[in-house]
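Troubleshooting: if your tokenizer reports a length mismatch, compare your output against this known-good record of 351 residues.
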Amino acid sequence: MPFRRAILAIAAASLWCVGPLTAQDTLSLTPVTLHGFLQVYYRTGDPLIKDGYRLRKADLKFSGDISPRLRWRIAFDAGKLLTLNKTISELGDSLALSDAAVDQRTKMLQDAAITYLVNRQLQVDVGQQIVPLSYEGTIPSAKVETIERTLFIAERSRAVGLGDVRDIGVAANGFFTAVEYHVGLFNEAGESAGTTDANDQKAVVGRVAIKPPSIPGFQFGGSGGFEGGPPQQHRERAGGEIQYATPLFTVRAEMMSARDGILHRLGWYSLAAVRPTARLQFSARFDSWDRDRTRESSINDALEHQITGAASYVIDGSGAKVALNVVRQTFPNVDNVRAGTILLAAFQAVW
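Known-good structure output:
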């Protein structure tokens, strides 16, 4: 058969290139580890979005060792929707599309980084990676207690989210005594993933969490970032976090404020979760999110509140679970935007 003969020819050529093996020769392959996360949900009741299914996440992460101190990782999100940045120009008395380019932040590539292990207290990451902003913005999606992350991370209609964002840069990460730390120098604060830097300034972003040994499960800390430059380019981030977690329950609160040019934003949430069994979890969260602190005229800049009630169940003790969230969404300062009750039903699996 032609296919079989081709395979045999390739194998013979490979052996010829390698040459004969002696007793001292070894042929070794570096093992590659594969992790994945899949989340599919159905959303209904949202006055701003039509009912329907959504492939929320389809993550694949490949990683391996280059040497005892060097590691690599590449991650993709196949569930991302590719979008275009469009430029509109005036043509006579009408408008016309003059330019269109792919929004690099919507490409499938998530992480692409090399890690150097300096010692037990320090490792250095180089490449595209998570920007260390907020606690919930840095933990894996599979470990978030609700189907969607908090509003200041998930809502991205104005500028970029304040957590769970990636950019290209160098970061130092580690744990020393009772302090977990992350600090990095990035092209931007998360809005330029997959692209070259559009300006000469760099963003400094960091997060610190203090975990007193005398109180297991308790931690507090904060995160922030800064990028200078002209007023329209200026970036600032500042937030705080506190959490107490045991196998039975978790309580957590976070706040994050941001300045993007003349745009000022503020978000915070408080969450409580209880786990009566190893498989079953109930949680509740209150979210407050102000997209633009200087205006209250429409949904594009209105203060938003959400109250979420959630339940999830792990299937057969595996990495798969089903979840149900009921979300009450209100805009207390704007009369022309009506409130809504949103229902989310999700299936997710991690491996």
